[in-house]
Amino acid sequence: MESALTHLSCTACGTELAADELHGTCPCCGGVLAAHYDLERARRTFHPARLSERPWNLWRYAELLPVRDPRFRLTLGEGGTPLLAAQRLAHNLGIRQLWLKDESRNPTGSFKARGLAVAVSRAVELGAQAVALPSAGNAAAALSAYAARAGIPAYVFIPVDTPRTILAECLAYGAHVYRVRGLITDCGRLVRRLAGERGWVDLSTLREPYRAEGKKTMGIELVEQLGWRIPDVIIYPTGGGTGIVGMWKAFSELEVLGLLGPERPRLVLVQPEGCAPLVRAFHEGVSTAARWEHATTVAPGLRVPMTIGDRLVLDAVRRSGGTAVTVSDAALLEGMRLLARTEGILVSPEAGATLAALLTLRDSGWLTPADEVALFLTGSGLKHPELLPDGDNCPVLDPDAQEFTTLNEERR
Ligand SMILES: *Cc1c(COP(=O)(O)O)cnc(C)c1O
Ligand SMILES: [Zn+2]
What we know:
The protein has 14 helices and 13 strands. It has 412 residues and is α/β, with parallel strands linked by helices. The chain has a domain at 83-109 and 212-387: Rossmann fold. A 6-stranded mixed beta sheet has the order 4-5-13-10-11-12, sandwiched between helices. Strands 8-7-6-9 form a 4-stranded parallel beta sheet, with helices on both faces. It has a 3-stranded antiparallel beta sheet with strand order 2-1-3, with no helix packed on it. Residues 10, 12-13, 15, 26, 28-29, 31 line the site of zinc ion.
């Protein structure tokens, strides 16, 4: 399995760049760079029969990933996550088929592992000695783990109010952690300044071409798990939008490879009411998204007031025939609760937002009972003890049956 990577090009101005040197954004216009592959060559080995013999992690799609030398493919078992049929929930909600793509099973408990497995591998292959990024939390944890795996230092910059479990996780992996009084965008400005000075490779999302390639594998995997077809609708909790950009690219590549027709899932972009720059831009009919002021939400991964990928995300959602919705923090927390209680999956607040959006779209009639829907459950609830039920009210027993009986009787 050889990478079929050929070159990079700017998604804004079209400038082409060599793939085998480190690049951030476009040197001409600052736009987002995209990776290109020789899909005719990839086609010789990238087909269902050959794929079925490969291990269930994202490197099974090596032809469509940028790392050339297999020795550089860092793995902690990322990707290959289950696609679970949620029959009870689908029945209760009155929709035909509901799939849960359980990304919480990834190393470090979120799908950020996909992007960072690929980006760190590729950066090291191209000579990186140290890596850095701004993050709302999960990307920092994933970078910390993959940098440890690669044996190089990681410098992560996170908002000072990042959940403590995630901060502790980064420290446990040995990362250099800096807490910034501000949001992920403020962290980003700091990283851009310091990375240049210190010689760190900046892995800010969409400001280098390969995290989107890692996240693209969610789209390929979903299509493969459904037997090389798409669902009608994908609901995706959107921060910077890297996953939407990546999956949209994956569908085009699969079409060129002859593994998918021209059909596409309708992409639903979900953001919280307290930070919804892309939803606002979608409904205003504009092609870029202005910064969201005073961003606030309990879902840290969705507290992204501005993204360099705005144009690409909005374009993908529109061309897919999709839509954009906001959900309240209360609704996304209720989504978390419902997923745990009805299906046994404990997800992060960002993931809870997908179920909240599904309810909104079903009530508005945008989703019909005939739709087959896939929710991307992007992170694990175990990273958020601050949002889980408090155990202090659970009964405490002496190991004495008498007391248990009395207690049960009281409860009747
Ligand atoms: C980062 C993150 C998101 C947003 O992902 P993007 O692809 O950057 O929009 C959603 N959920 C979780 C759990 C995240 O960590
Ligand atoms: Zn450009």
